[in-house]
Amino acid sequence: MAERPEDLNLPNAVITRIIKEALPDGVNISKEARSAISRAASVFVLYATSCANNFAMKGKRKTLNAGDVLSAMEEMEFQRFTGPLKESLEAYRREQKGKRGASELKKKDKDQKEDSEDPDKNREEEEEEERMEEEEPNEEEEEEEEEVDS
Q1: How many Å apart are CA 43 and CA 17, to the nearest integer?
Q2: I need a labelling partner for 17 at 20 to 30 A (CA). Which of 23, 91, 131, 142 fits?
Q3: Acidic residues bias: where (predicted)?
Q4: Confidence (pTM)
């Protein structure tokens, strides 16, 4: 685990970017305020993780899942965040599904392109594999030959 309590803090650059996105243009924030928000965010993440871990342990699992986090949010009395969190989770899942689908299509297109470029190559490889299998005597035939020889 962490050697020092500071190791558990979220990265300052990430916190600063989130703060800037949340505040209107022209509003500045002091270094102390940024540090306080960073600590508060870190404590929140650790508490939410601990609560989610309890739900995973009740389910006799070692892996936290989205359901554990949503249940933890409700237990921590942050129900008003579960709706937006579910929406974000669904958007993330759709994005991942789209990426997987796109990569599968690319692979399929590539395979079809390779097949169409040299269809004889695949046939030759298959025929070579069949010849190799025919040439290799199987174990049963070898045992029978040994028994006959004895």
Answers
A1: 19
A2: 91
A3: 125-150
A4: 0.59
